[in-house]
Amino acid sequence: MSIRITSVFLTLVAISAAGAGGYYAGSNGFRVEGLAFSGPATSKPASASATGPVIYYRDPDGKPFYAASPRKTAEGRDFLPVLASEDLNFDDQASLKEKPSATGAEPSAASARKILYYRNPMGLPDTSPVPKKDSMGMDYLPVYDGEDSDDGTLKISLGKMQRTGVRSERAASRVLSVPVRASGTIQLDERRISVVATRSDAFIEKVSDVTTGDKVAKGQDLVRLYSPDIATAGAQYVTELSDPERRSVLGGARQRLENLGAPADLIKEIERTRKVPLAVTWTASQDGIVLERNAIDGMKAAPGDVLFRIADVSTVWALADIAERDLPRIAPGQDVAVRVRGFDDRLFAGKVSLIYPQVNKETRTTRVRVELANPDGILRPDMYVEAEIATGTEMPVTAVPASAVIDSGTRQVVLIDKGEGRFEPRVVTVGRRGTDYVEIREGIAPGDDVVVAANFLIDAESNLKAALRGLSSDAQKPDQPKEKPL
Length: 486
What we know:
With 486 residues, this protein is of the alpha+beta class. 17% of the residues lie in helices and 35% in strands. The strands form 8 sheets. Strands 10, 12, 27, 28, 29, 30 and 31 form a 7-stranded antiparallel β-sheet that branches. α4 packs antiparallel against α6 (253-259). The longest helix is centred in the C-terminal third of the chain and has 19 residues, at 455-473. GO terms for molecular function: transition metal ion binding; transmembrane transporter activity. Keywords: Ion transport, Signal, Transport.
């Protein structure tokens, strides 16, 4: 496409300011990063056939220096004016030989390709059977025989493919990994929390040196207390043990001790010594961390008062909130990778143990429980976590890179690379979406080459060609656009 120098002047100035990096000067033109620039690049003045206003000034020695207004070199020589007809051209050399001149002349006879018609350079649905210019003075572009076939394919020149960065990749059978990511928090396992409490009135005599946050072991002494009800039941049990005849009359003293929560060690001590201790020692029922301590020396505790709350933190829960749309892909037993803020270098592995039955109406999420081993105790309640649930299938499916799918919202299209610059748009049915690949259920098969880069540009060109074919087929109204789907 012929581009007026006014649209690229800043680019040329930037190139010259870069210190000649990536270009070389010649007698008939110069090249920047593989692009051929046709136009004056020597010290010769403008030809007599050049027309139009002066659009910029160039160095008289052909050096890559330009100016928007008249200026002189360091030696005092005037910069040479460049007229509008001496426009630069950024097309490849093959295109330069085949394009019509600015005056509307036909291409040289050396070109074997036949020009079917000329299309608008800005992509507008307008064609012409003869060379012409648009309202901005840009030449209409020729459409050659073979580039406008009716077999559903699109032909693109190798030069244009290189400039746009077209790249293809082969569709293949792959096992898709479809992770679902969600945030959540660490919570204690409700089944591993216990409390130390009395079932009768009691008076605290002495509390062990245990505070909130301390680790305790199962059977460790926590508090020594006196309970009148336990003492009375213990005395009755001693009487029953001493006099079997009274046991049949009274009876149930041992059961009353158990109902009052008397420790098993206390009952064994009464049976062995036939005496009732005045104070009873309460111990920890499990290994864990003291979450709460309410016992104080000398206080009176009512039935049910919590003296200590202990939690086993060797196993904790990660409660993650899953979006409602992702719920169908979640199932108990799926592997979960959990990262905890503050421990980015560690990855905790677990499995989905439960999907809660409620949906939060404000956030439209459902809570999922993941059990995590915590042997060193670094996972603490209310820590923030990021969970990644693996929901992919083990069966391989036909998949292409995600960038290969052009999704308009109502249909999905991929471009099949037919080779030699020919491309075929094809409507496909997509399935699951993985991290980098998308499942294709219908439309292509393993082994097909699909475009994964610059496919949007090719798709736009394909739609334009389809519209132009519709225009050219209407001989009566060549200038009226006509829609024609792919």
